[in-house]
Amino acid sequence: MNASRLVARAPGRVNLIGEHTDYTGGLAMPMAIDRYIGIDAEPADRVRLRSDRFEDVAEFDLGAVVDDVTGWARFVAAVAAEVGGESGIDGTVTSDIPSGGLSSSAALELAVALALGFDGTPRDLARLARRAEHAATGVPTGIMDQLCIATARAGHASLIDCNTLAIEYVPVRADVAVVIEFVAPRTLVGSEYATRHDECLRAEAAIGPLRLATPADADTIADPTLRRRARHVTTENERVGAFAAALAAGDHVTAGEIMADGHRSLRDDFECSTEQMDQAVAGYLATPGVYGARMTGGGFGGCLVAWCDPDAVVTGTRVRPVGAAHRGPAPDVDGSST
Ligand code: GLA
Question: Model pTM?
Fold first, then answer.
């Protein structure tokens, strides 16, 4: 490999359970998946990246103001501003992460930061990428996506405490298939994500931090909308703990039921699903060999995730848990580098 090449690779993620809990410091359980964004570049005095997904080229001078940059280049510019180095990159971005719920933007942020020479811990990398996401989109997203992708362990899901950023890794057994299926396009920009975030803050003003509250506490909130939002978050935090225990015990039936409960809660209490998504999830739940299914990610469209017997006949794609974003090329199957 040419010594001056700057190569970085970051996986997408699928959230198994723990949706809309991260920005109130709750629990989530995502896993990084074997779908990647890769960057192959050379050092340069500005940033110039071509993409196999988008026609426009991300091109700007170091020190560019993020608000002056449009399209996917905005994410790149926001990361470059955060990394703040004196050297740019010139190269290509490739991606096989389906867009809409699998954190392709977080993967892009991490890959760009690594290619630009970010130097720090995986948690610092996740925090930097989250700040870049906020600068690029204005959406007040949590830390789950970036932290999962920065710290993932192959073969495992990550039980994340979004308050302390502590992570417990739980093996995903070979006798279960994690399946994703794209349902409908979506972007969180312009969605009700920010409204939900605000509603959670208002619920916290009534009963204190949601990460410490119980569903019984949530039921004391007078405003019916805020009560439902808080009920989702408090029951979802409980579901994450129960799901992690079921996963560790290899109890796929219980894990699947918890996922299906999580979907109902997102649909009825958090109101961030769509009719098309509900139908797709119902179709999975009625399929032999499917233990559970739910929308995954921020919602308002996007992808579903299903927990299935490996022999179940479903239309989605099986994904496998992989390790964290890294500099350098993909490791060979035997673990060595190409
Ligand atoms: C998006 C955000 C995450 C998280 C999820 C919902 O993926 O980027 O921080 O809030 O939505 O769980």
Answer: 0.95
Ligand 1 center from residue 41 Cα (angstroms) = 29
Q: How far apart, in whole angstroms, are the C-alpha atoms of residue 67 and residue 55? A: 20
Per-residue pLDDT of the chain (338 residues; tens, 9 = 90+): 566 888 999 999 999 999 999 999 999 999 999 999 999 999 999 999 999 999 999 999 999 999 999 999 999 999 999 999 899 999 999 999 987 889 999 999 999 999 999 999 999 999 999 999 999 999 999 999 999 999 999 999 999 999 999 999 999 999 999 999 999 887 777 789 999 999 999 999 999 999 999 999 999 999 999 999 999 999 999 999 999 999 999 999 999 999 999 999 999 999 999 999 999 999 999 999 999 999 999 999 999 999 999 999 999 999 999 999 999 877 654 443 33
264 touches 252 (CB < 8 A) = no
Cα–Cα distance, 33 to 331 (Å, whole number) = 15
From CA 282, how far away is CA 132, in angstroms rounded? Answer: 36
- 269 among known catalytic residues: no
| Protein residue with its CA nearest to atom 11 in ligand 1 | 298
User: Residue 199 — φ and ψ, nearest 5°?
Assistant: -60, -40
3-class secondary-structure state, position 293: strand
Among 17, 19, 22, 108, the mutation site with the greatest number of ligand 1 atoms within 8 A of its Cβ is 22
- Determine which residue's CA is closest to atom 8 belonging to ligand 1: 141
Q: Which of 328, 331, 311, 307 is nearest to 14 (CA)?
A: 307
Q: Is 22 in the pocket of ligand 1 (CB under 6 A)?
A: yes
Q: CB of 141 closer than 6 A to ligand 1?
A: yes
Q: Which of 266, 272, 277, 269 has its CA nearest to residue 192? A: 272
Q: Among the options 40, 96, 124, 145, which is catalytic?
A: 145
Nearest of 232, 203, 224, 214 to residue 295 by alpha carbon: 232
